[in-house]
C-alpha cells in the first residue's frame, strides 16, 4: 500500500469584511493558503495571482528537490505580483501571505511567508509548524510581551513579511510523513479567533474533511468572524492511488468547498 494525500479547501468571507481576499488550493501533492492584503480589490488580486502561480507545482517532486521547487514557487508568485503592479501602479502595496505544503510520497516540505499558519495533528497532538511573520510575534520573541498579550494587541495583524513582488525570505521545513497525519493550513481568520485546543478537538472529532472544514469555519463565525476565514485540510492515508480532480477556491461566499484532490506517492 502507498501513502497518499487527500485534501479539501473551504473559504468564507466572514461577518465583518465586505469581500474575501483569501485564496486556497487543495491538490494531489500540494496544498496552499494565500491571505491577500492591500486596499480595494488588490489583496484579492495578489492572493489569486499567487495561487495561480503555485498550482503548476502540484506534481511528484523528489525529496532533494522539494525546497528548490518551493523556492521557485515563491519566485513565480512574486514575479506575477511584480508584473501586475508594474502594469497597474494603482495596485502598489498589494501583497499576500503564502503557506504551502508539498508531498513527495516520502516527505513533506513546507514554505511559509506571512501569518497564515500550518498545523500538524499527529497522535492526537496539534503542533504549529510555522512562525508568524508579524510585529507582535517579534515582540514575543524579544520578550517584550507575552503570547496572551499578543493575542489582543492592537497591531497583531501587522505583518513584517509578505509576497509583494519584492525580495522575501521564506521559512522552509521538511517533515517525515506518518500514516494518519492530518494537516491544517489556515488564514488568521481561523487561528486568530479559534484556540488550538478547539482546533485539535474538532480535527479529532470530524474524520470527514469537508465536514471538519465547515465546522472550523462555523466556529470562527460563532467567534465573530472578524476576518476572511480559509481552511485547507490534508490527511495522509494508506491506500491505492485515486486520481481525483485538483482545485483552487478563491473569494467563495458563502463557504464552498474546492475540488478535493487525492494523490499517491
Describe this structure in words.
InterPro entries: PP2C (IPR015655), PPM-type-like_dom_sf (IPR036457), PPM-type_phosphatase-like_dom (IPR001932). Pfam families: PP2C_2. It comes from Catenuloplanes atrovinosus. GO terms for molecular function: protein serine/threonine phosphatase activity. This is Protein phosphatase. With 265 residues, the protein is an alpha+beta fold. The strands form two sheets. Strands 1, 7, 8, 10, 11, 13 and 14 form a seven-stranded antiparallel beta sheet that branches. Strands 2, 3, 4, 5, 6, 9 and 12 form a seven-stranded antiparallel beta sheet that branches. Helix 1 packs antiparallel against helix 2 and helix 6 packs antiparallel against helix 7. The protein is globular, with a radius of gyration of 17 Å.
Amino acid at each position: 500500500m502507498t501513502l497518499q494525500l487527500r485534501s479539501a479547501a473551504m473559504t468564507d468571507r466572514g461577518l465583518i469584511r465586505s469581500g474575501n481576499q483569501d485564496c486556497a488550493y487543495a491538490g494531489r501533492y500540494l496544498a496552499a493558503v494565500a491571505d491577500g492584503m492591500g486596499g480595494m480589490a488588490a489583496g484579492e488580486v495578489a492572493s489569486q495571482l499567487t495561487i495561480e502561480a503555485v498550482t503548476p507545482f502540484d506534481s511528484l517532486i523528489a525529496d532533494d528537490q522539494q525546497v528548490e521547487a518551493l523556492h521557485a514557487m515563491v519566485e513565480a508568485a512574486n514575479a506575477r505580483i511584480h508584473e501586475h503592479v508594474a502594469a497597474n501602479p494603482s495596485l502598489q502595496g498589494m501583497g499576500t501571505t503564502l503557506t504551502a505544503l508539498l508531498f513527495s510520497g516520502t516527505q513533506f516540505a513546507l514554505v511559509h511567508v506571512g501569518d497564515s499558519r500550518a498545523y500538524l495533528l499527529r497522535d492526537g497532538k496539534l503542533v504549529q509548524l510555522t512562525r508568524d511573520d508579524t510585529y507582535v510575534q517579534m515582540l514575543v520573541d524579544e520578550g517584550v510581551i507575552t503570547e496572551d498579550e499578543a493575542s489582543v494587541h492592537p497591531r497583531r495583524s501587522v505583518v513584517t513579511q509578505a509576497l509583494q513582488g519584492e525580495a522575501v525570505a521564506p521559512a522552509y521545513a521538511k517533515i517525515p510523513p506518518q500514516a494518519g497525519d492530518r494537516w491544517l493550513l489556515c488564514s488568521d481568520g481561523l487561528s486568530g479567533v479559534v484556540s488550538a485546543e478547539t482546533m485539535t478537538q474538532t480535527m479529532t472529532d470530524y474524520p470527514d474533511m469537508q465536514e471538519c472544514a465547515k465546522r472550523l469555519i462555523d466556529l470562527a463565525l460563532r467567534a465573530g468572524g472578524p476576518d476572511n476565514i480559509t481552511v485547507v485540510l490534508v490527511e495522509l492515508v494508506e491506500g491505492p492511488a485515486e486520481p481525483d480532480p485538483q482545485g483552487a477556491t478563491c473569494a467563495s461566499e458563502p463557504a464552498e468547498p474546492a475540488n478535493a484532490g487525492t494523490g499517491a506517492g
